[in-house]
From TrEMBL:
Species per Swiss-Prot/TrEMBL record: Aspergillus ibericus CBS 121593
Family designation: Belongs to the major facilitator superfamily. Vesicular transporter family.
GO molecular function: transmembrane transporter activity
Major facilitator superfamily (MFS) profile domain ranges (all copies): 13-434
Assigned GO CC terms: membrane
PANTHER family per the UniProt record, alphabetical: GH10249P
Protein's cellular compartments: Membrane
Keywords: Membrane, Transmembrane, Transmembrane helix, Transport
Topology of the protein relative to the lipid bilayer: Multi-pass membrane protein
InterPro entries: MFS (IPR011701), MFS_dom (IPR020846), MFS_trans_sf (IPR036259), MFS_Vesicular_Transporter (IPR050930), Tet-R_TetA/multi-R_MdtG-like (IPR001958)
Superkingdom to which the source organism belongs: Eukaryota
Pfam families linked to this entry: MFS_1
Membrane-traversing stretches: 12-35, 55-74, 86-108, 114-132, 144-166, 172-192, 240-265, 303-323, 332-353, 405-429
Protein name: MFS amine transporter
Amino acid sequence: MSVQQLRSSTTFAVIVVCVAVFTDIFLYGLVVPMLPFALADRVGLSDADIQPWNSILLATYGAAIMLGSLLFGWMGDQTRTKQLPFLLGVGVMGGATVLFSLTISLPLIVLARVLQGCSTAIVFTIGFSLLVETVGDRHIGRAIGFTSMSLSIGIFAGPIVGGFLYDLAGYFAVFIPAFVLIALEFLLRVLLIAPTHDPGLTHALIQDEQRPLMPDTGGHDARQPKRPPAVVTLMRMPRFLVAMAGMFLLNCFMTAFEAVLPVYLPEVFLYRSTQIAIVFLSNTLPMICSPLGGSMVDHLGPFWPAVLGFGLITPSMMLLSLIREPSPLTSLLLRLFLFLFGCGVSVAMPAMMTEVTLAKDAMEEGEPGIFGDLGACSQAYGLSNAAFAGGTLVGPLYAGYVREAAGWTAMNISMGAFSGLMVILVIVFTPRKRPGVVRTTRMGA
């Protein structure tokens, strides 16, 4: 295989997107453990102001992802190649990291969080649509499984590395691995040869097949009706909305536990931070097996993996309501139920992300040209990523409020009920068989 073939291969594209996902999430998590200390020591906030501003910065990040996903999704579909907007993401990521490392100004730290959100939006819209165009629909489930694994590793590794380096060597040492990863990511994105659209080919064939044998010489207006925006068209399809709802709920569940468990476990088991991190391994480690879930999606379609995934999540969350007293048995059950939860996520996540693409493709097959010549791949992932980001905002707020107002049991049973509702929605709206789809792309620089 020549260097040119390697740079344009599906394997290299999967590696580049996986590294992009890992780097982006790792850099986000890297500053999480030391951010409260930075707000106090570098910005000078009082103890009373640190918790509100820490929450504001999290909400700012989520809001930037939601808005950025829509913007960059539209941008990605307007370009013949995803290369330039994908490279833009490295610059945005680098700018956010420089601001975090140097600034002592609160507004600039907020700006850094906004840039981080935009970087995440670019990775999960431009990057994933690039992956679909390179890999093709037939093997996208396994490819997305690898990106889900990268996401899980980044979520777990970022805070651990950040906290360790901050305690060992101080504030600036935290950013050394950040800049190394950014340099590596820039090199990989430059080397990648992304596929380019040749929309004229596909749509010309469609138009030739649909063109009447005799021209219409009538006096009526032959102009084409104006198409609604692609995001509006996508949001009209129940199947696509269910895929978005699945992405939203999965992130709601994950961020809910991230917000509540660090508070609840010290109250019940008197755990310290290291023990809490070990507990989180119970639901993070199974997510490393996401490529297996993706392979299931490629062979079976999204329906059965989604039913299995949410079917595991539902009882595991409800059974967590039993963890109310400290004992060796409840400690073991806590880890078991979280492990089952992680297994469910590792299967459901690739299924829902693949369904985003298949639902969009089904609309194009049913009504050729519905999204115009440039298609709507990036915008479809932009919408699903906006829904996923919405889970970042809603999950911690919902879990925290319900636990304070109604207790730990009510919180877990209610979230399990939402997962059970998701199983019903998948059964009603997601097709059980996956049609074969052939995507037309042209490889180019």
